[in-house]
Design a protein that fits this description.
Radius of gyration of chain A: 20 Å
Order of helices and strands of chain A: EEEHEEEEHEHEHEHEHEHHEHEHE
CATH class of the largest domain in chain A: Alpha Beta
CATH architecture of the largest domain in chain A: Alpha-Beta Complex
Oligomer: homodimer
Strand content of chain A: 25-35%
Number of domains of chain A: 2
Structural class of chain A: alpha/beta
Chain lengths: 333, 333
């Protein structure tokens, strides 16, 4: 156990692209837990696209990260010291302690994880927020029926990879959109999608239309911009768009300007935005199903790992550019 | 009874704005009904924004009007001659005979109306397609709860005027958007909306935000373009957009480019397109309620009447420019 904690703070707000200058790394003493609190040593930090939004000084569905504060994020870690009856040293836990090596959390803000059942890091991926997001977004908003064609962007990513596998389990045709032939190959060959379109190939509308001969019934949107605008034109009457992420817009100074909204009227499309927090009372329900699928070998995943907290900023910058391949993590211990 | 029928045909397809050159008026013999058919003398022709879409050579939810064919539209008229047991001369009927003085329809394509209960023309307005559109769109997609703020564009129009009155009946705050102070005054003073914003005043976002101090829970969209883009920014979490019409786009050569889609994600808005035909098996249910409200004096309306079939093209052109004030009709007899 090192004597000090190490934290990544938000030092300045990016105008468009994030740079390493926007962060500051500091050493601080390790805090001591009070009554009902627990000291956790973080082992894995999750990097996610939503973090870009939290760096802006704009009230979104949650407040922004304050300048000088520790960057937000979920981690999995091990209890080092506990002043609450519910946890003991050695327990593996899921936390919201953010970008730091150690942190003190209230016991009620921690969830115990079973690292014997699945690797601890998967509780930040297919068995964590990304998997739960895929579960509720696809089932509650997308409402896929057997035989439907489900399209998902960022298909090799933490959310997209689960969406496509769940769509296959629901008896659908799963078509991914990803950047580059390596990711597309992985999506089809390893994850079992029926097809995957490389948006970098420059003929998205044509390629997508070839991969979706019966049109699109459900679009699970993680990217937005040109991708969403194109998908809308290929959607079927009474189809559904799960608007989960708009990563293409997060670093832009100007919002993308969509021209295909008329399709929503003419095709009577339902488009609905989602934030996984809206189902927080039902996480257990999704998790139980995801764990069962995982145990049965039906939920494949891939991780993109950055080593050490000092590299977390670079990990996020890469993620926002689509340089990750699978769930982006930082190994902290 | 004149010896001849008079019809308005689609002569050419408009590129953007409709002009009178796009139509041709012809005299033809009056057709004779065969078995199971009825000859109707049309009294009122309904003009509606959807007609603009039908003038394009684009497969939408229904095929376009063919060049040289009679322009489509609903009418109310009187049965002149019947070769079906279900109708007798003198019966008032709702038809889809389009822009002509006389027409032969299959009996099963006609609906009898009760012109003693409400003026015949109201079956093209508050008790017709526009009223039924308002009913299902607001209730099934908008799902307003008491206390919600409901915004509707084209608020003095055939659909919008009913939406706002139904919203008031549901215990909501009804806020209209209309063009010009006369329409806005009518919407508040005669229709009983809580407020109406004049989009021509040039400060839409500010004015709308003042009229909706608690944000917007339901937006019933008839216009689109800048109006919809502005409304999206003022919507509340978990609010609903009923996408019923995009009249602002119908005559544009280029689609409007929306920049506020991110609001749909962040606020978890549900936006859904609608065409009233999707509820065709349930029209009776809506009509029954609308007739009861009408009889109770709770459904006020206003008509904008063009005289004579030769003026129908001019009526449609005016409607597409927002020059009508209330339900646009053509008096044919």
């Amino acid at each position: 156990m090192t004597a000090n904690n190490r934290q990544v703070l938000l030092a300045s707000r990016p105008r468009d692209q994030v740079s390493e200058d926007n962060f500051r790394i500091v050493e601080t003493p390790i805090a001591q837990p009070g009554d009902g609190e627990v000291l956790v040593r973080n082992e894995w930090l999750s990097l996610d696209p939503y973090m870009r939004g939290r760096m802006n000084d704009v009230k979104s569905y949650v407040p922004p990260v304050q300048l000088g504060a520790v960057m937000v994020g979920q981690t999995v870690g091990e209890v080092v010291q506990s002043r609450d009856a519910a946890f003991r040293p050695g327990d593996k836990v899921l936390t919201s302690l953010g970008w730091q090596l150690y942190g003190v959390a209230k016991a009620r803000d921690l969830a115990r994880i079973d690292a014997t059942r699945a690797p601890a890091s998967t509780y930040l991926g297919p068995l964590g927020m990304p998997g739960i997001t895929a579960w509720f977004g696809l089932h509650e908003i997308g409402q896929p029926k057997p035989g439907d064609t489900v399209v998902v962007s960022a298909a090799s990513g933490a959310v997209g990879s689960v969406v496509g596998q769940l769509a296959k389990i629901s008896g659908c045709r799963a078509v991914g959109i990803a950047g580059g032939s390596a990711k597309c190959r992985y999506v089809v060959e390893d994850l079992g999608f029926d097809a995957c379109v490389d948006y970098k190939a420059g003929s998205l509308e044509h390629d997508l239309s070839e991969s979706c001969p019966d049109g699109i019934d459900v679009n699970f949107e993680n990217v937005g911009g040109e991708l969403l605008d194109t998908v809308l034109r290929l959607m079927n009457p009474h189809s559904r768009v799960v608007l989960c992420g708009l990563i293409a817009e997060y670093c832009a100074t100007e919002p993308y300007r969509y021209k295909s909204l008329r399709a929503i009227l003419v095709k009577r499309i339902k488009m609905q935005g989602m934030i996984v927090f809206d189902w927080k009372d039902r996480y257990g329900e999704a998790l139980q199903q995801l764990v069962a699928l995982f145990a049965a070998g039906k939920l494949k995943y891939r991780e993109s790992i950055v080593e050490g907290i000092d590299n977390a900023p670079r990990g996020l910058i890469g993620l926002l550019k689509g340089e990750n391949f699978g769930k982006q993590l930082v190994r902290l211990a």
